[in-house]
Write a structure and sequence with these properties.
This protein is mainly beta. It has helices spanning about 10-20, 30-35, 115-120, 135-140, 285-290; strands spanning about 35-40, 50, 60-70, 75-80, 90-95, 150-155, 165-170, 180, 190-195, 200-205, 210-220, 225-230, 240, 245-250, 250-255, 260-265, 275, 280, 295-305, 310-315, 320, 330-335, 345-350, 355-360, 375-380, 390, 400-405. The protein contains five helices and 27 strands. Strands 5-4-3-27 form a four-stranded antiparallel sheet. A four-stranded antiparallel sheet has the order 9-10-11-12, with no helix packed on it. Strand 4 (about 75-80) and strand 5 (about 90-95) form a beta hairpin. The longest helix has 14 residues, at about 10-20. It is globular, with a radius of gyration of 20 Å.
Length: about 400
């Protein structure tokens, strides 16, 4: 079921022009044929990886993702922005294969995938996950891509509507430039996300015996299944971080700048801040015994520093919270007035911790009706000064802000 492109004609035209020019043949990733490697990945606890130099990997860059659809086209545009002047630094396009699960609709198997969060959520087709606040959606969608934004993970449906396989799409490729990592009959692979280096796709899967597991398949070679650890089904997303890679099955996963802890939530698990683990799996009651509960936190936006986290509070304001004690500190930051009638949800915190980006929209309607420009604002985490509107016309109210390096 494809949504109409009303209000997105300019975005779609730009995406089609990029993809049609770049999609005349398959292309290698920047890691294989791009410039000399740049500095290690900053701010995500992934400093073991060295990234190619590009507009998407440089400091002081905001990265966004927008899904665009037409009658015969679906694609994701990833853009790199200058956060001061909101000038475009770079654009990459990812065609979505026709067999990819980017929306759920009647008569096919519902699929849990962050790509559905990005592309297929509407009043008729809700998010496949229990909560679709932007503090939940942003880290889910970010996990679709490698650190350098060269590949995007997808879940592919077989024609029978029941079998699903993990796969990936190359940036700047054409409509047929995707890889299904398995063709086994009866596969039940969902929640596909990329490893930080883009060399493997991770997913949740159900074995023939009904056991719930986390698996991965290399993007090279024979794509053999590697079992990575236990899962709790498909209801919670995956995030893969660190070197060597480890997956956490939970919501609102943000790795601390020093890589030692992460934020996360899961049903019936106490706490918000956990120590990183040496193995892959879901949060457990045992891990919750050493976790920190962030007081009054209903949405985790990201890390302000190694020991401080920005939260959306129950009141709708934002507060910085000490990750060691769980206590709020500093001023409550209001993005909208109490009588405004709209709500603000946070998406990303700048790497320096001084600013964050929030989306303002009607309650329970982040996509907005009709489709059009989004109301995004750059806000000080300390509450000092006025919020500054994001003035980039190609950003619609379906755009997700993924990262502020």
């Amino acid at each position: 079921m494809l949504r109409a492109l009303t209000g997105k004609a300019a975005v779609l035209a730009a995406v089609l022009a990029i993809l049609c020019v770049q999609g005349c043949g398959s292309s290698q990733s920047e890691e294989e044929e791009g410039p000399e490697p740049g500095p290690s990945a900053p701010y995500w606890g992934n400093r073991g990886y060295t990234l190619p130099d590009s507009p998407f990997t440089r400091e002081d860059t905001v990265v966004t993702a927008t899904c665009s659809m037409g009658a015969r086209y679906a694609g994701v545009t990833v853009q790199a922005w200058d956060p001061e002047r909101w000038e475009l630094r770079g654009t990459r396009g990812f065609f979505i294969p026709v067999d990819a699960a980017f929306t759920n609709y009647p008569d096919v198997k519902n699929v849990n995938s962050p790509l559905v969060d990005l592309c297929g959520v509407s009043s008729d087709s809700p998010s496949p996950y229990a909560v679709d606040d932007l503090e939940y959606v942003t880290p889910r969608v970010r996990a679709l891509f490698d650190l350098a934004y060269t590949r995007m993970a997808v879940v592919l449906r077989d024609p029978d509507g029941r079998t699903t396989h993990a796969g990936y799409v190359e940036s700047e490729g054409n409509a047929d430039d995707f890889v299904s990592l398995s063709d086994a009959e009866g596969d039940d692979e969902q929640n596909a996300v990329m490893a930080p280096d883009g060399r493997s796709v991770w997913f949740s899967y159900i074995t023939a015996d009904g056991e719930r597991r986390i698996g991965s398949r290399s993007t090279e070679g024979d794509h053999r299944l590697s079992d990575e650890g236990p899962a709790i089904g498909h209801d919670l997303p995956l995030t893969v971080t660190g070197k060597p890679s480890r997956a956490v099955q939970a919501n609102m996963v943000h790795l601390a700048p020093d890589g030692r802890r992460l934020t996360a939530t899961a049903p019936k698990i106490y706490g918000h801040v956990f120590y990183t683990r040496d193995s892959s799996g879901p949060l457990t009651a045992a891990s919750g015994r050493s976790a920190t509960l962030l007081s009054g936190c209903v949405g985790i936006v990201g890390w302000v520093a190694d020991e401080r986290v920005l939260c959306r509070a129950q009141s709708g304001t934002f507060r910085t919270v000490d990750a060691r004690t769980g206590r709020a500190e500093g001023n409550a930051v209001a993005v909208v007035r109490e009588d405004d009638g709209r709500v603000a949800e946070g998406m990303v915190v700048a790497a320096g911790g001084e600013k964050f980006i929030a989306s303002v929209h009607s309650p329970n309607d982040r996509s907005g009706q009709p489709l059009g420009l989004g109301d995004f604002r750059v806000v000080s985490t300390s509450g000092e000064g006025a919020a500054v509107p994001v003035s980039a016309e190609s950003l619609t109210n379906d755009t997700v802000f993924l990262e502020w390096r």
